[in-house]
Design brief:
It comes from Halogeometricum rufum. The chain is 32% helix and 21% strand. With 344 residues, it is of the alpha/beta class. A hairpin with a 2-residue loop joins strand 9 (225-230) and strand 10 (233-239). It binds adenosine-5'-triphosphate (ATP).
């Protein structure tokens, strides 16, 4: 096995051409996903999560492009590869992408087995028999009866369809599955079940997962590492336990307090005022500054580097000029209450 990290996102900037000029959807994103790791990419709607995910498999919309930076899969640079090369080298076999609203991506006219064979034909030399045997195996991993691979999508419930899609993504045994909001269309019970199966997949395969969601508590429950995105920038990244116990960026601190936490059942949930902004042109400022209770003028004058703070653990980095003051010298809850008190 190669000693290179599985996936490296290096200072990646992605732009869309729009009528108002180039929109910077992802700005200098930087993180690494290792073999077998479950990595959460989290942030509110519009933060750039899907754009980043799509760029990894070369699936950006026609008006989107990687403006700078690198994407490396086991050390090999992907950002300049064309469609044919990406198809041959990485898609499905190495990196599988489950898009948002993926239930609509199943072809209603085709049996699941036929959809699996189509993927296998394009991306592998497997015989029909081998491909179907592999698909049956994955049906079992996701908790579906293997004798139902020849069913049509409409013969499955919504949750079963979602599992069938995960089985399709897994069946060529990729090294990474990127799952973009895999459970948003499902009810809470189904969501729980899907996450239970994702856990089982972790135990029975070596697949890494990039789980994209707006729900930071889901990521805390199911991932090893995470990156919190805001306005196209990575606000904070690191091991789950460190970010959970010791957030170093105001956005992840507030986002964490916007979701229920079993440690603090009586705590009031935070609302984060405003919405993530759209950025045009160079993003040489902190995109959270206009929503951040702690922001100062300097936060609007330069983009803070994503770096370790004075006391952060290995691999734990945040992009905030004020992190040491807010999280080391003060108690963030007290200083937040004081700021809010002053403002009211
Ligand atoms: N094809 C496009 N053309 C122009 N702008 C786009 C395009 N696709 C996305 N954007 C913009 O890029 C930014 C990031 O969008 P993206 O879909 O990546 O965010 P997201 O965090 O995945 O949100 P969601 O969870 O709602 O999908 C947003 O401002 C969005 O409006």
């Amino acid at each position: 096995m190669s000693s290179e990290p599985l996936l490296e996102v290096e200072n990646l900037t992605i732009e869309y051409d729009t009528r108002q000029g180039p929109l910077t959807a992802v700005s200098n994103a930087d993180f690494t996903v290792e073999d077998g790791e479950y990595f959460g990419l989290v942030g509110e709607s519009g933060c750039g999560k899907s754009t980043l995910a799509k760029s990894i498999i070369g699936g950006l919309d026609d008006n989107g492009r990687i403006a700078s930076g690198k994407l490396k899969y086991r050390g090999e640079e992907l950002q300049d590869l064309g469609d044919a090369e990406l198809n041959e080298k990485v898609r499905w076999k190495e990196i599988a992408y489950i898009p948002q609203a993926s239930m609509n991506s199943l072809d209603p006219m085709q049996r699941l087995s036929e959809q699996a064979l189509e993927i296998a034909n394009v991306h592998t030399d497997l015989s029909e028999e081998e491909a179907l045997a592999q698909f049956e195996e994955m049906f079992e991993v996701v908790g579906l009866p293997e004798n139902r691979i020849r069913d049509y999508p409409h013969q499955f419930s919504g949750g079963m369809q979602q599992r069938a899609i995960i089985a399709l993504a897994l069946f060529l045994q990729p090294s990474i599955v990127i799952a973009d909001e895999p459970t948003t269309a499902l009810d809470v019970i189904m969501q729980d079940q899907i996450f239970k199966y994702l856990d089982e997949i972790r135990d029975s395969t070596e697949t890494s997962m990039i789980l994209i969601t707006h729900d930071i508590s889901l990521v805390f429950e199911s991932c090893d590492e995470l990156a919190v995105m805001h306005g196209g920038q990575i606000a904070e990244t690191g091991p789950i336990t460190d970010v959970y116990d010791d957030p170093k960026h105001p956005y992840s601190y507030l986002l964490q307090r916007a979701f229920p936490d079993i440690r603090f059942p009586d705590r009031e949930l935070e609302t984060i005022e405003g919405t993530p902004p759209q950025q045009f042109g160079d993003v040489d400022y902190c995109t959270f500054a206009n929503r951040c209770p702690w922001a100062e003028e300097g936060c609007r004058e330069a983009a803070p580097p994503l770096e370790a703070s004075d006391t952060s653990a290995d691999g734990h980095r945040a992009a905030c000029f004020r992190t040491n003051e807010i999280f080391e010298q003060e108690d963030p809850a007290e200083s937040l209450a004081a700021i809010r008190g002053d403002q009211s």
